[in-house]
Amino acid sequence: MLIEQLSIFVENKKGRLAEVTGILAKHNVDIRALCIADTTDYGILRLIVDKPGVAVECLKEEGLTVSLTKVIAIAIPDTPGSLYKAVDLLAKHDIAVEYMYAFLNPKKDTAFVILRVEDNEKAIKVLTDGGVALMKSEEMYTL
Amino acid sequence: MERQYFQPEYECADREVLRDIQSKRLQELVKRCYEKIPFYRKKLDEMGIKPEDIKSIDDISKLPFTYKDDLRDNYPFGLFAVDKDEIIRIHASSGTTGTPTVVGYTVHDLETWTNGTARALIAAGAKKDDFIHISYGYGLFTGGLGLHYGAERIGATAIPVSSGNTARQIQILQDFGSDILCCTPSYAAHIGEVCRDMGVDTSKLPLRAGIFGAEPWSEGMREQIERLLNIKAYDIYGLSEIAGPGVAYECCEQNGMHICEDYFYPEVIDPDTGEVLPDGEYGELVFTCIGKEALPLMRYRTRDISMLIREKCACGRTAVRMAKPRGRTDDMLIIRGVNVFPSQIEYVLTKLGMEPNYLIVVDRVNNLDTIEVQVEMSQSSFSDSVKEIEAKERMIASELHSALNISAKVKLVEHKSLARFEGKAKRVIDNRKI
After folding, report:
1. Same domain for A55 and A81?
2. ipTM value of the model?
């Protein structure tokens, strides 16, 4: 149920994002989802890709600081209140969300939400018990 | 039986015997300077000192200081005490901070200097069958040729790799099986870092020691180099104006560097008043080249901040030791009135496990000095959380504050985004228009 997310340390410099995504393009890595946490001096680029292992290797080879973080992905109906239902479950069970980002599945009326929480096991249990569908890593990589 | 000392008759000499040698050599030096160098004759005449007034080494404090600017004013050969036909070698400083300073060597001077580097190599455990891998630059810079001659003098094998081309350095370390590496500490750290990136297991290399100098470096840097290269790292001290590396060197005790005081007589002075300071007190290191012919400088102001340790060392040497220099007076930054040496910042960073790649940027904003310390984010200390990265920056800033008593902004930058150095490192950018 856990998905490998790439976290890349990127300084706020013009063109840096192009360089990083260029490396991934060169190695034929397909990006499934992304978000950037930004501060004044740097950002953390977070990516879900089809080949996390290949991506980490090629980025490290180019000298980038990159790590793999285990995150959860849920699939929820693209209707009002669906996200509320999921995060409310987490809140009621005292699970803090460090960050999250979402994207739509164009083929179905479904939205995917990537969640980074402190306690993955507990969150998986709470969400499953509450009837929220979790994505398997293979499903995410091959979307 | 391995040699423990190269020249025990000097390195472990009875202090009284050594004093006699120093007194005799000082008298000869003053006489020669007076007779051969118009610059010194004029200075001594102005001060009313005649060579006969110098009777023992205790009279050294009567002599005038020599400054780097004196060498520049007499550029290139104005302070040479011998004719051109007696000079067999020339070295020069890089001249990055102005006119280069030029140093000449007679046959005897090269002998003196070579003995210094030979003593340093033996003190670091070098043996006759060792490969000495020399990655100091060869050329006008004294590092490469200095260690090269010392390596040959002790009968070891010198590998004159010179600096640069790090991949080839590592290939030679592996294929030739170098035993001792000689280069600047920043280059040693870089070689170690590249070994790690290339997946070279340094614990499998025959390399067992390194002799590193030509720039100030901290104990934290020593630990990092020792860990990265899996060796014991020795400090060596020298400056081209005096001879080059080998003026002083560390022994197995690693508690200060033994000075070749039969050639280079040391004093520590208050840089403001010129007063000689007692042993154990930090001040500016001053050398008198009592063992040199071509450029016999009197009381040369090194601008290096150190102190002298006179007690006999556990290694058996009696030669006085100098503490690891804290830095050079001209490297010293004055930030909001507080004196800061880059090596102090390096010490804090390396102690916290950060890699020894950093840049200090000083500026003046609204008449207030600002200091920013850029440190590279390493793979091992990177976390996915902004909160943790910010906490790390704050922690480093707070450690810097307690060590230096100034507030510095800490900025974590990308791995490998800061410059690497094959020779002397340049780690300070001062943008203040003063």
Report:
1. no
2. 0.84
